[in-house]
Amino acid sequence: MRVLVVGGGGREHALGWAWRRDDPTTTLFTAPGNPGTATLGTNLPIPAVDLEGIAAAAREHRIDLVIVGPEAPLAAGLADRLRADGLAVFGPSRAAAELESSKAFAKEIMRDAGVPTAPSRHFIALQPALEYIRRHPEPLVVKASGLAAGKGAVVCGTRAEAAATARAMLVEHQLGEAGRKIVVEQFLDGEELSVLALTDGEQILILPPAQDHKRLGEGDTGPNTGGMGAYAPVRLGAPGLLERVRREVLQPAVRQMDRLGRRYAGVLYAGLMIAPDGTPYVLEFNCRFGDPETQALMPVLPRGATAHLAAIATGTWKPDRDVLPATGAAVTTVLAVRGYPDDPEKGAAIRLPDDPGPDVLLFHGGTARDADGTLRVAGGRVLNVTALAPTVALAAQRSRAACERVAFEGKLYRRDIAWREIQRAGAA
Predict the structure, then answer these.
(1) 389 touches 421 (CB < 8 A)
(2) How is residue 417 annotated by DSSP?
(3) Which of 75, 174, 389, 400 could form a disulfide with 395 if both were Cys (CB 3.0 to 4.6 A apart)?
(4) Eight-state DSSP code of residue 409
(5) C-alpha span between 84 and 78 (Å, rounded)
(6) In this structure, are 339 and 417 located in the same domain?
C-alpha cells in the first residue's frame, strides 16, 4: 500500500512506525512529518491544515490510504475533501469531528444520548458566565469549547479563579477562537482513564486502556500541558469497566451521532473520570488518536492491528472481537524543553544515544534538522521515550533510564510516569 499519514508529531511517528512494523513493504509518506518519520519514508513539506495541498499530494503520489493524525485538519474538513476525490480516509468527517472541536456540542450529544458526564452550562458572554459561577459550588472547571491543543481545561479551586479564567477566555481572548465559547462544569473526583475505540459508525473495537499525565510537574502538579507521558495497559480498565464504557458511553454516543446524520467513523477517544463508585464519566471526546497515548498504545497492539484502520476506511471492516488486547506494557515519557508549555525555548542541539536501551523507541515530536543536518529542538514536547516490558513498572524504569541518555539544553521531564499503576501493582 501507499499510505499518507497527516501530521508532524510523535503521534504520527508512532502511527507510521506501526504501519511499517505490520507491513514493511508499505510505501509511507508523512505530511509534514519530522526527522523521525523521515527514517520511515518520505516527508512532504505540506502543513496538515493545507487541505488542497494534501489533496494534491495524495493524487500526485497515488495514495491508497490517508490517516489523519491531528484534530485541526479533521475539524477543517480534510477527510471530506479527500473523500470527494475518491480516496480512502481514516478519520471522521468535519460534522462528526465537532465532537472534539466543540465541547458545547459534545455536551449536547452526551445529554441527549444519556452518557454520564458532569453537569454544565456553556456561555459566549461574560456576565451570564459570572452569574452562573457565583452560584456554583467549589471547585469547578472552566473549559474553552474550541480546540486548544489540550490546554483549554482549567480546574479552578475557587469561584474567583473560575471568574478570572472565564474573563481570560471570553474577554482577553487568551486562547483565541477556542475560547470564544466556554463550558463551565462541575468538578469530578476520581481517576482519569483514556479509552480509545475504533468504529465504523456501528461496530466498536476498544483498544487497551491508557492513562495520560497532563500536568507539567511530578505528582500531577503545575499547569496542564498537551501531555507529559502515558502508559498502557491500565489495571483500572478491567474488562468489566470496558464493557460498561462500551454500553454507557461509546455505543450511545455513536448512535446519537448517526441519528443526527453525522455518522462517526474513525477513532473515538473518550477521556474519562472513573468515579469512586466505578461510574465512567466523560470529561471529553476526541476525534483522533491521543498524543502521547498513541506512542504507548501502538507498540503494545497485536501485530496486524493497523489493518483495522484500512478496513474502516474502505468500508470492509468486520472485527472478530470487542476489545483488542495489549501484548505487554509500554510507558512513554515526554522530553519537553524549558519554558514549556507557555514559551518553550527552541533551537538547542539534540544528541541521541547510539543505543537508547533495551526495548526502547524514540518517537520524535518537536524536532527539526537544520541546514547542516544537526537535530534541534523545534517545539515544546521534543521527544517521546517509549519503553516496552512485561510490566508497567519495568517499562517505566527503562523509559526513565533512556531519558537520561538523550541530551539537549533545557531538557525537562517527569520521572513518575505511571506512578498510580505502579502503586496499584504493589498493593495487589
Answers:
(1) no
(2) T
(3) 389
(4) T
(5) 10
(6) yes
Q: What distance in Å separates the CA atoms of residue 19 and residue 65, rounded to the nearest whole number?
A: 12
- The grid coordinates listed for 428 are 495487589
> For residue 224, with 0-12 CB atoms within 10 Å meaning exposed, 13-18 middle and 19 or more buried, which class applies?
middle
Report the distance separating Cα 267 and Cα 297, nearest Å. Answer: 13
Claim to verify: residue 151 and residue 220 sit in the same structural domain: no
Q: What is the dihedral of CA 365, 368, 373, 375, to 10 degrees?
A: -50
- E strand residue ranges, 42-125: 42-43, 65-68, 88-90, 120-123
Q: Domain of residue 64: give its range.
A: 2-93
Strand runs labelled E in 57-139 = 65-68, 88-90, 120-123
Q: How many domains does the chain have?
A: 4
Predicted structure pTM score: 0.96
Q: pLDDT by residue for the chain (428 residues), tens digit each?
A: 999 999 999 999 999 999 999 999 999 999 999 999 999 999 999 999 999 999 999 999 999 999 999 999 999 999 999 999 999 999 999 999 999 999 999 999 999 999 999 999 999 999 999 999 999 999 999 999 999 877 788 999 999 999 999 999 999 999 999 999 999 999 999 999 999 999 999 999 999 999 999 999 999 999 889 999 999 999 999 999 999 999 999 999 999 999 999 999 999 999 999 999 999 999 999 999 999 999 999 999 999 999 999 999 999 999 999 999 999 999 999 999 999 999 999 999 999 999 998 899 999 999 999 999 999 999 999 999 999 999 999 999 999 999 999 999 999 999 999 999 999 988 76
**What's the alpha-carbon Rg for the chain, to the nearest Å?**
21
Asked if residue 8 and residue 63 are part of one domain, the reply reads yes
